Structure formats: structure tokens, C-alpha cells
Amino acid sequence: MNPYERRLCVRCGTLLDPARAPGEAPRPPWWRRLLPRRERHPLAAGTRPKRRAWRRPRLTLPWILVVLLVAAWFGRAQLTELFSFAQSSTGDPKPVHPAQVRASSQAASHHAQAAFDGFNNRYWAPADPGRGTGQYLEADFERPVRLRELLITSGSSTKSDEFLGQARPSKITVTLVSSEGERTSKVLNLSDAPGQQSFTVRGSDVTRVRLTVDAAYGVRADRRVAVAEVEFFGRQ
User: Fold this and answer.
1) In this predicted structure, what is the pLDDT of residue 64?
2) Is 146 within 8 Å of 232 (Cβ atoms)?
3) Residue 39 lies in a domain
4) Chain Cα centroid distance, residue 148
5) CA-to-CA distance for 91 and 87, rounded, in angstroms?
6) SS3 category, 21
7) Could you tell me if residue 68 is inside a domain?
8) Does 165 have pLDDT greater than 60?
9) Which residues form the domain of 98?
10) 169-191 residue pLDDT tens
């Protein structure tokens, strides 16, 4: 009853779609147009739609799961080590405290323990004054650790007026010893400034660390090379 040019129905007042030609099917909504549907062909008279046969599950997927479980069982040690490595690589390092410390030599009242006691107003110094080349500090861990970072506070104090009272190491060689006796070394260049200095020193299965003085600032005949504090960070 509605002419094609009308926009409202003459009987009920419903808004008509002017874009659709007479007899044309309405346009499907947008969410149906995203995934085109297959066209359904009308069935011939006297025929019925075919039933979809239920497919039996194949044995491929169960066999794959069995193989993966067996491989995980035999490789559980490697998986545990891999998980520990990932955790130590991505997690924040924790303080690692040595069980025993020693030095090549030590002056009176300036023993090796003073460099690992957590106080920066006490320091280690070798027995003889001078350059201190070849003198070292050494720390042993009770269990192997995965080392990631090393903090060194050089000098006799963090206070500027006391810092220059003794010589300060300018170059230190760090030697890491593993539980199997393998050694790796790294040279650290220190700045001549009071306070902590952070260095990235990475090693796995470390049981011993040696810090050897190679050169120093402010060397005089009446001064000794001083190290106020050494701190290790990693995971056990």
C-alpha cells in the first residue's frame, strides 16, 4: 500500500527504509556482515538434511601429551635449573653474605672483617703502606651463589674530609671461583669519590671471590690502600 517515495507508512506511521527497493530483503546487521555465512540451498522435495557424523577422537593428541609428560619427567633436573636461572635473571638480586673472609695481609685494627661488617666507618688496609699492588681481599660462601652485582666503598670513610686520609684503589681485579675450580676475572675501574660504587659482576655457581688491588689513588709512603666496604648481591 505504501508508494516507493514515502518514508512513513500510511497505516502505522513506521519509518520506511528508502534505500531498499521494493521486495528487497532487509540488510543484515553489521555484526553479521563481519563473518560471511554460507549460502543455504533449498532442499529438493522429499529430501531431508544430512546428519553430521560424530568424528571419533584421534589418538595423535593423547600420544603427544604422553610424550611431553615423559620428556618433562626425565628432564625435570634441567627444567628446575632453567627455572632457577630465569628467576635469578629477572628477579631483584638479594644480599649475599660470605661465610669466611681473609686478606693477603692486614694492618693492626684494620682487619679483613672490617670490609664485610656492614659499617663504612671501619676499613681494611694491608700491613705495609704504599701502592698496595697485589694485596687482596677474599670471601668464601657457604653454598654456591649466582652473583650479579658488587658494591665497593673505597677509602677509609664516606666522609669527604676522612676519605682522603688514606690511599684509595683505582683498579681492582675481581676473580670468581666456581665449585669446580673454574676461574673468571673482570677488571673494575673505580672513581676517586666517597660512597658506594656499583659494578655488574655476573657468575654462576660461585664459591669464592677475590678482589686484588692493581692501582691506587693518593699513594704516599705513610698511607695504606683502604677499602671500607664490599657487598655482594645475587641468589643462592
Assistant:
1) 81
2) no
3) no
4) 10
5) 6
6) coil
7) no
8) yes
9) 94-235
10) 999 999 999 999 999 999 999 99
Phi and psi angles of residue 15, each rounded to the nearest 5 degrees, phi first: -70, 125
Instruction: Give the count of domains, the chain.
Output: 1
- CA distances from residue 74 to 15, 17, 71, 78, 143 in whole angstroms, order as listed: 72, 69, 5, 9, 26
pLDDT of residue 81: 64
pLDDT tens string 3-25 = 777 778 878 878 776 555 555 56
What is the residue-wise DSSP string for 93-137? Answer: PEEE--SEEEES--BTTB-GGGGSSS-TTS-B--SS-S--TT-EE
Distance CA 204, CA 51 (A): 63
CATH number for position 198: 2.60.120.260
Give me the mean pLDDT over the 93-109 stretch.
Answer: 94
Mean pLDDT, the chain, integer: 84
In a domain, residue 124? The reply is: yes
In a domain, 210, yes or no: yes
Of the candidates 111, 98, 100, 101, the one whose C-alpha atom is nearest the C-alpha of residue 224 is: 111
What does the alpha-carbon distance between residue 79 and residue 85 come to, in Å, rounded to a whole number?
A: 10
Give the amino acid at 154. Answer: S
